[in-house]
Design brief:
17 helices, globular, mainly alpha, single chain
Length: 403
């Protein structure tokens, strides 16, 4: 597993670092108004691809291992046909609904372009996620690395060119994200085109139906877990001012950057918990907790002294965002240390436990977010976002070691 983790550093973690640099660049160079629109675009993009389709992919990888599925391409192609039809429906609905959709959702008419662009980006993002999930399942980490690394390199190149010619704004930045995701398909064109194959379509539908009937609790769990970050941001964009949205969006971008790096580092645990013996996977997990615990302790010690670095990276206009940044960074500690436990719970057929725990966390999160929005407390929404996830990861770790 540790060899696989090292293999992921180049394509997985390095790509997230490069995406982080792109985000920092946009935070500094875009106006607060443009950055707010861009944040809404990224919110729609990640919400649609993350909530509607990523739960299927996250459940599919451990499910494929546990069920020893041999034909991965056919299985993931079935997921692709499902998502294409659903995305076409969503895009058509948003187009016919018109600008009123932005007002009804966010109480802000200027968000309509970011909604449409975000939906378009979610389509190509979902294709990329399917390709990455395929490579993780078969442990083809070299192709995984190539797909991952092309996107941020293309994005930074485009953004740098736009800035040099003074064309950088919300529209050009959004289209840059969309185009750079599309470029990542070059890393594995054969697998990408295989997603559209119609050969054996009825068998694909049969396999997808079998997957849903067998793993629906896992899919719903990953869906509920994925809502936590989106619910908090939705409450902020709906009930707070443009100024507040921008101030909350900046630390949220740093939080998402760190989150993506942690997700990448956890990938080997999916195969470890679902392919290796219980004693082997548990020993690796214990070692992971010890290492990440020390890293987290070091991070807590330097966090109070990091304000100057935060302002240097983000600009003085976002100095007021530092308290939200601290809350979100502290909340990443349970995720970093304990979140691999959910795959151990899955391996022990604990899907019902995970779903129940996630629903409890969701109720807590909704209550905190509602109270925070009514009292205009961004700190409370930031706290709720990370606390609700911590309940799942800490609870899963307790469950794993008790079993």
């Amino acid at each position: 597993m540790w060899k696989n983790l090292r293999n992921l550093v180049f394509g997985g973690v390095a790509s997230k670092v490069l995406l982080g640099l792109a985000n920092i660049f946009l935070i500094r160079e875009l106006t607060k108004s443009d950055f707010t629109l861009l944040s809404n675009f990224l919110f729609i993009q990640s919400m649609v691809s993350g909530l509607l389709f990523t739960p299927f992919l996250l459940a599919a990888v451990p499910f494929s291992n546990l069920k020893k599925i041999q034909n991965y391409n056919r299985f993931f192609s079935a997921l692709n046909w499902f998502q294409m039809g659903f995305l076409a429906f969503i895009m058509m609905f948003a187009w016919l609904y018109g600008p009123e959709l932005s007002i009804d959702l966010f109480h802000k008419s200027q968000f309509y372009p970011s909604i449409l662009l975000g939906l378009g980006a979610s389509i190509v993002m979902t294709f990329q996620n399917i390709l990455l999930s395929q490579q993780v399942t078969v442990e083809a980490y070299k192709r995984y690395n190539v797909i991952n690394i092309i996107r941020p390199i293309a994005l930074l190149t485009i953004l740098g060119t736009l800035y040099a010619f003074n064309y950088l704004n919300f529209w050009t930045a959004s289209l840059s994200f969309l185009f750079s995701i599309s470029m990542s398909f070059i890393g594995d064109l054969s697998s990408f085109f295989s997603l559209f194959s119609v050969k054996g379509f009825r068998l694909r539908l049969y396999q997808f139906n079998w997957f849903w009937n067998s793993a629906w609790m896992l899919v719903v769990f990953f869906f509920v877990r994925g809502t936590f970050d989106h619910i908090g941001f939705f409450y902020v964009t709906r009930y707070f001012s443009i100024e507040d949205i921008a101030n909350f969006s900046v630390p949220s971008r740093y939080y998402y950057m760190a989150d993506l790096i942690i997700v990448t580092s956890h990938i080997p645990f999916i195969n470890s918990f679902t392919k290796e013996s219980s004693s082997q996977s548990r020993a690796k997990f214990v070692k992971w907790i010890k290492v990440t615990g020390l890293v987290s302790l070091f991070g807590l010690l330097i966090l109070p002294f990091s304000k100057e670095i935060f302002v240097l990276l983000s600009g003085e206009k976002y100095e007021v965002s530092f308290p939200y940044f601290c809350i979100l960074m502290i909340g990443l500690i349970p995720y970093l240390c304990f979140s691999p436990a959910i795959y151990g719970v899955i391996a022990k057929d604990g899907g019902r436990f995970l779903l129940s725990l996630s629903l409890l966390s969701l109720l807590i999160h909704l209550g905190f977010c509602w109270f925070g929005s009514q009292n205009k407390e961004l700190n409370l929404i930031a706290f709720s976002t990370v606390f609700s996830r911590a309940v799942i990861y800490v609870g899963s770790t307790i469950y794993l070691f008790k079993r």
